[in-house]
Amino acid sequence: MSKNPVGRPPNPERRLEIALAAVDALRERGFSLSMSELAAALSMKRPTLYFYFKDLDGILELYVTHILAEEAQHVAGSLADVEHPIDLLEAIMRESHAFFAARGLEDWIVVLTQWIGSSQGARDRFIAMVRPHQAPVRELMIETLQLAIADGRVAPCDPRAVWDLIHIVVDGGMIHQVLSDVDPLPVLDLVRRTVLAPLRLPQETAR
């Protein structure tokens, strides 16, 4: 594998390709690998790996950013024909879980926990990466719920608490599925039936 020409920025597609392969190697061989050991595992020279990434944190940051972007694209694609705010919440909850279940839930949780546990400051970097993905959607859904409450489509509630509950249930369900072999789907259905469904007001009450 040859090194890119000096002075030219790393090719983004090649950089992502290396990051994904590196994460596979880290899962197989452990997150204590040095950059030299990782380069050997990837059959590349150490200077070549350093050309694309200065450290393991850079590799894992790109991997996490990539997965979060894919999740956002997947969820957004499922919302095109959904109009009612409660249906939106149900779809977001369902499709977020479906994405990680199909992608490899255990791999995702292992990568996050190993990275956060082995690298100082990784938790803060992870939060900083997640916030740009989640904050705009959170604020949009809170505003959407507030408007729906005002026009009588949704029962009075705390929109922020409702939105946060959805994420706590989805994220917590994923963790418990990996650590305790708990099936989160009945829990998601319980939230749908007991929390979200009662918030939908009959159409004739809408103003």
| Text of the CATH class of the largest domain | Mainly Alpha
Q: Tell me the count of domains.
A: 2
Binned, the helix content reads: over 70%
User: What structural class should be given to the helix and strand makeup?
Assistant: mainly alpha
Summed up, the helix count is 9
Question: What do the pLDDT scores average to?
Answer: 89
Q: Count the strands?
A: 0
N-to-C SSE string, H for helix and E for strand: HHHHHHHHH
CATH topology name of the largest domain, in short, is Tetracycline Repressor, domain 2
Q: Terminal Cα separation, in Å?
A: 65 Å
Low-confidence segments: 1-5
Report strand %. Answer: under 5%
What is the approximate shape?
A: elongated
Label the CATH architecture of the largest domain. Answer: Orthogonal Bundle
How would a crystallographer describe the biggest sheet? none
CATH H-level homologous superfamily name of the largest domain: Tetracycline Repressor, domain 2
List keywords for this structure.
Arc Repressor Mutant, subunit A; single chain; 72% helix; 2 domains; Tetracycline Repressor, domain 2; disordered N terminus
Layout of helices and strands, plus pairs?
Layout (H helix, E strand, L loop, with lengths): L11 H18 L5 H7 L4 H7 L3 H22 L7 H19 L1 H14 L3 H29 L8 H22 L4 H12 L11
Helix pairs in contact: 1-4, 2-3, 4-5, 4-7, 5-8, 7-8, 8-9
